[in-house]
Amino acid sequence: MTNHPTAFPKHNSHSFCQTLETIYAYLYELLSNLNGVIQSPKYHPERDTLYHSLQVFGYAMRETQDPTLLAAALFHDVGKGIDYPNHDKAGAQAFYGVLNNDICWLIEHHLDLLNNPTKTRRQLKGTSQLANLEKLRRWDLAGRKVGVEVMSVQTALNILHPHSHKILDHSLCN
After folding, report:
1. What is the number of structural domains in the chain?
2. SS3 of 170, please?
3. Considering only CA atoms, which of 49, 81, 77 is closest in space to residue 150?
4. Is residue 137 part of a domain?
5. What is the 3-state secondary structure of 105-156?
6. How far apart are CA 73 and CA 60, in angstroms?
7. Under 8 Å CB-to-CB from 117, ≥6 apart: which residues?
8. Residue 99 within a domain
9. How far apart are CA 75 and CA 148, in angstroms?
């Protein structure tokens, strides 16, 4: 398993808000750590977690411009580089206080439609959370191909960067 980054440094100074460089370096590190994290060929014929995550992001980009959904698609499996068996919770934990709560919730619950589809649909019936989980699940399933060309981590982050004010946790600047 790859080395996982240290927890995101919490800062309360105004100067921290003036640069996104630290935040995006942390996001880059979390994604880059997925390179070489091998998944079960039974469920993931594409094997590499980073390759899968970039595919999922590409599918999301074809269907939405919503930065929350795009970020959830890109970062949904980051926890596999931290605590593979509990990657949904580990990934969300890595982002609480960094990304907004809606993105963290989607990351933490991205397996709910796999593990408990009936219960999840009953509990979230008629909510945007269910609609968003269904989209994320569809993209997650689609991003399991071999031989698909994907963008680089830096390109994906560059796409999200203009939406920083929407995807980042606003407490970073308090």
Report:
1. 1
2. helix
3. 49
4. yes
5. HHHHCCCHHHHCHHHHHHHHCCCHHHHHHHHHHHHHHHCCCCCCCCCCHHHH
6. 7
7. none
8. yes
9. 19
Both tokens assigned to 102: 């809606």
Asked if 84 and 148 touch (Cβ cutoff 8 Å), the reply is no
What is the chain's pLDDT, residue by residue, as a tens digit (174 residues)?
445 454 555 544 444 454 788 899 999 999 999 999 999 898 899 999 999 999 999 999 999 999 999 999 999 999 999 999 999 999 999 999 999 999 999 999 999 999 999 999 999 999 999 999 999 999 999 999 999 999 999 999 999 999 999 999 877 665
Tokens of 80: 């596999």
Task: Count other Cβ atoms within 10 Å, centred on residue 116.
Answer: 12
7 belongs to a structural domain: no
State the residue range of the domain holding 28: 14-173
State the amino acid at position 22 in one-letter form. Answer: T
Q: What share of the chain is helix, strand, coil (3-state, %, to 5)?
A: 65, 5, 35
Alpha carbon distance 151, 51 (integer Å)? 9
Q: Which residues contact 158 (CB under 8 A, 6 or more apart)?
A: none
Main-chain dihedrals φ then ψ at residue 117, nearest 5 degrees: -60, -45
